[in-house]
Protein backbone atom coordinates (compact mmCIF):
# COMPACT_ATOMS: atom_id res chain seq x y z
CA UNK A 1 0.00 0.00 0.00
CA UNK A 2 1.33 3.41 -0.96
CA UNK A 3 0.51 6.28 1.28
CA UNK A 4 0.92 9.72 -0.14
CA UNK A 5 0.24 13.16 1.05
CA UNK A 6 -0.93 15.73 -1.39
CA UNK A 7 -0.30 19.35 -0.68
CA UNK A 8 -2.48 21.60 -2.70
CA UNK A 9 -1.02 25.00 -3.09
CA UNK A 10 -3.61 27.69 -2.78
CA UNK A 11 -4.56 28.90 -6.19
CA UNK A 12 -3.07 32.28 -6.94
CA UNK A 13 -5.50 34.65 -8.45
CA UNK A 14 -4.18 36.89 -11.17
CA UNK A 15 -2.92 40.20 -9.83
CA UNK A 16 -5.69 42.14 -11.54
CA UNK A 17 -8.38 40.09 -9.83
CA UNK A 18 -7.13 41.14 -6.41
CA UNK A 19 -7.57 44.86 -6.98
CA UNK A 20 -8.38 46.92 -3.92
CA UNK A 21 -11.81 48.50 -4.02
CA UNK A 22 -10.40 51.93 -3.22
CA UNK A 23 -8.29 53.66 -5.84
CA UNK A 24 -6.19 55.17 -3.05
CA UNK A 25 -5.43 51.65 -1.78
CA UNK A 26 -4.56 50.63 -5.32
CA UNK A 27 -2.16 53.57 -5.59
CA UNK A 28 -0.48 52.62 -2.31
CA UNK A 29 -0.10 48.99 -3.37
CA UNK A 30 1.38 50.09 -6.69
CA UNK A 31 3.84 52.40 -4.97
CA UNK A 32 4.92 49.61 -2.63
CA UNK A 33 5.48 47.31 -5.61
CA UNK A 34 7.37 50.05 -7.41
CA UNK A 35 9.75 50.56 -4.50
CA UNK A 36 10.50 46.85 -4.68
CA UNK A 37 11.03 47.01 -8.47
CA UNK A 38 8.04 44.71 -8.88
CA UNK A 39 6.56 45.21 -12.35
CA UNK A 40 3.07 44.55 -10.99
CA UNK A 41 3.15 48.22 -10.01
CA UNK A 42 2.52 49.03 -13.67
CA UNK A 43 -0.61 46.85 -13.63
CA UNK A 44 -1.90 48.78 -10.63
CA UNK A 45 -1.13 52.12 -12.26
CA UNK A 46 -2.88 50.97 -15.45
CA UNK A 47 -5.95 50.25 -13.33
CA UNK A 48 -5.72 53.70 -11.72
CA UNK A 49 -5.67 55.17 -15.24
CA UNK A 50 -8.65 53.02 -16.24
CA UNK A 51 -10.61 54.17 -13.19
CA UNK A 52 -9.61 57.83 -13.48
CA UNK A 53 -8.66 58.54 -17.11
CA UNK A 54 -8.85 62.33 -16.67
CA UNK A 55 -6.84 62.47 -13.43
CA UNK A 56 -3.07 62.95 -13.77
CA UNK A 57 -1.99 60.69 -10.90
CA UNK A 58 -2.09 57.33 -12.69
CA UNK A 59 -0.01 58.72 -15.55
CA UNK A 60 2.38 60.40 -13.10
CA UNK A 61 2.85 57.16 -11.17
CA UNK A 62 3.45 55.14 -14.32
CA UNK A 63 5.95 57.73 -15.60
CA UNK A 64 7.68 57.61 -12.21
CA UNK A 65 7.99 53.83 -12.47
CA UNK A 66 9.71 54.20 -15.83
CA UNK A 67 11.88 56.98 -14.37
CA UNK A 68 13.26 54.53 -11.80
CA UNK A 69 13.68 51.84 -14.45
CA UNK A 70 15.81 54.22 -16.52
CA UNK A 71 17.89 55.14 -13.47
CA UNK A 72 18.72 51.46 -13.01
CA UNK A 73 19.04 50.69 -16.75
CA UNK A 74 20.20 53.92 -18.44
CA UNK A 75 20.43 52.37 -21.90
CA UNK A 76 16.78 51.17 -21.91
CA UNK A 77 15.40 53.36 -24.69
CA UNK A 78 11.92 51.81 -24.49
CA UNK A 79 11.64 52.79 -20.82
CA UNK A 80 12.82 56.31 -21.68
CA UNK A 81 10.15 56.61 -24.36
CA UNK A 82 7.45 55.32 -22.01
CA UNK A 83 8.59 57.72 -19.29
CA UNK A 84 8.35 60.66 -21.68
CA UNK A 85 4.96 59.52 -23.03
CA UNK A 86 3.34 59.03 -19.63
CA UNK A 87 4.97 62.23 -18.35
CA UNK A 88 3.36 64.18 -21.17
CA UNK A 89 0.00 62.54 -20.51
CA UNK A 90 0.27 63.50 -16.82
CA UNK A 91 1.19 67.07 -17.76
CA UNK A 92 -1.71 67.31 -20.23
CA UNK A 93 -4.20 66.16 -17.59
CA UNK A 94 -2.69 68.43 -14.95
CA UNK A 95 -2.98 71.39 -17.32
CA UNK A 96 -6.62 70.50 -18.03
CA UNK A 97 -7.31 70.59 -14.28
CA UNK A 98 -5.53 73.93 -13.99
CA UNK A 99 -7.54 75.32 -16.92
CA UNK A 100 -10.68 74.60 -14.88
CA UNK A 101 -9.26 75.83 -11.56
CA UNK A 102 -5.99 77.75 -11.18
CA UNK A 103 -5.85 76.71 -7.53
CA UNK A 104 -6.14 72.94 -8.15
CA UNK A 105 -3.48 71.56 -5.81
CA UNK A 106 -3.19 68.15 -7.49
CA UNK A 107 -2.98 69.71 -10.93
CA UNK A 108 -0.29 72.17 -9.86
CA UNK A 109 1.68 69.59 -7.90
CA UNK A 110 1.58 67.00 -10.66
CA UNK A 111 2.49 69.55 -13.32
CA UNK A 112 5.56 70.68 -11.35
CA UNK A 113 6.77 67.22 -10.36
CA UNK A 114 6.39 65.86 -13.86
CA UNK A 115 8.17 68.82 -15.44
CA UNK A 116 10.99 68.27 -12.95
CA UNK A 117 11.31 64.61 -13.91
CA UNK A 118 11.47 65.52 -17.59
CA UNK A 119 14.07 68.22 -16.93
CA UNK A 120 16.31 65.83 -15.00
CA UNK A 121 15.91 63.06 -17.54
CA UNK A 122 17.12 65.19 -20.46
CA UNK A 123 20.56 65.32 -18.83
CA UNK A 124 20.98 61.57 -18.42
CA UNK A 125 23.61 59.63 -20.28
CA UNK A 126 22.27 57.07 -22.69
CA UNK A 127 25.32 54.85 -23.05
CA UNK A 128 24.85 53.06 -19.70
Explain how this protein is built:
With 128 residues, this protein is mainly alpha-helical. The chain has one domain (20-121): Serine Threonine Protein Phosphatase 5, Tetratricopeptide repeat, CATH 1.25.40. Helix content is 64%, strand content 0%. The chain is built from five helices and no strands. Helix 2 (40-51) packs antiparallel against helix 3.
Defining key terms:
globular, 64% helix, single chain, disordered N terminus, 128 residues
Briefly say what this structure is.
64% of the residues lie in helices and 0% in strands. With 128 residues, it is mainly α. It starts with 22 loop residues before the first helix and ends in a 7-residue tail after the last helix.
How confident overall, as mean pLDDT? 83
Helix content: 55-70%
Q: With helices defined by DSSP (H or I, 4 residues minimum), what is the helix count?
A: 5
Largest sheet: none
- Give the helix/strand class: mainly alpha
- CATH A-level architecture: Alpha Horseshoe
Contiguous uncertain segments of 5+ residues: 1-16
- Taken as a percent bin, the fraction of beta residues is under 5%
The CATH topology name reads Serine Threonine Protein Phosphatase 5, Tetratricopeptide repeat
Q: How many structural domains?
A: 1
Bulk shape: globular
Total strands: 0
Topology order in helix (H) and strand (E) letters: HHHHH
CA distance, first residue to last residue: 62 Å
User: What is the alpha-carbon Rg in Å?
Assistant: 19 Å
**Any idea of the CATH class?**
Mainly Alpha
Amino acid sequence: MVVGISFLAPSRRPWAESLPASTDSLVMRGIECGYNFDDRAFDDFDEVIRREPDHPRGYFLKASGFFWRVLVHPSDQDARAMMRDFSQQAIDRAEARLDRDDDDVEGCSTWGRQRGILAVSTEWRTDG
